[in-house]
């Protein structure tokens, strides 16, 4: 059974990503956000203060992280 994972994102005033959780070292913060948005954009929730979260399963996260290493 998969567990729920929340990935926190912080944005700069210009909209670029400055911090994001669970990021593979091979990707920049912006690249990881773009990859998550492409695959799981409907799972993103905007929050106040230049923040947001992705809500996904651990299986989805494992799959995306493995794909980032290829």
Task: Please explain how this structure is put together.
The protein has one domain (4-68). Helices cover 33% and strands 33% of the residues. It has helices at residues 29-40, 58-68, and strands spanning 4-11, 17-20, 44-47, 51-57. A four-stranded antiparallel sheet has the order 2-1-4-3. Strand 3 (44-47) and strand 4 (51-57) form a beta hairpin. It is globular. The mean pLDDT is 94.
Keywords summarizing the entry:
70 residues, alpha+beta, four-stranded antiparallel β-sheet, 2 helices, 33% helix, globular
SS-derived structural category: alpha+beta
Instruction: Give the domain tally.
Output: 1
Rounded to an integer in angstroms, the radius of gyration calculated over CA atoms is 12 Å
Q: Report the major sheet.
A: 4 strands, antiparallel
Question: In whole angstroms, how far apart are the ends?
Answer: 26 Å
Strand line-up in the sheet with most strands:
2-1-4-3
Overall shape = globular
Overall helicity: 25-40%
Strand content: 25-35%
> What order do the SSEs take from the amino end to the carboxyl end, as H and E?
EEHEEH
Mean pLDDT: 94
Q: Can you tell me the residue ranges where pLDDT is under 50 for at least 5 consecutive residues?
A: none
The count of strands amounts to 4
Count the DSSP helices: 2
């Amino acid at each position: 059974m998969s567990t729920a994972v929340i990935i926190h994102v912080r944005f700069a005033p210009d909209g670029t990503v400055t911090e994001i959780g669970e990021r593979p070292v091979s990707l920049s913060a912006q690249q990881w956000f773009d990859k998550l948005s492409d695959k799981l954009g409907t799972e993103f929730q905007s929050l106040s203060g230049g923040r947001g979260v992705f809500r996904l399963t651990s299986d989805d996260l494992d799959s995306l992280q493995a794909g980032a290493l290829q």
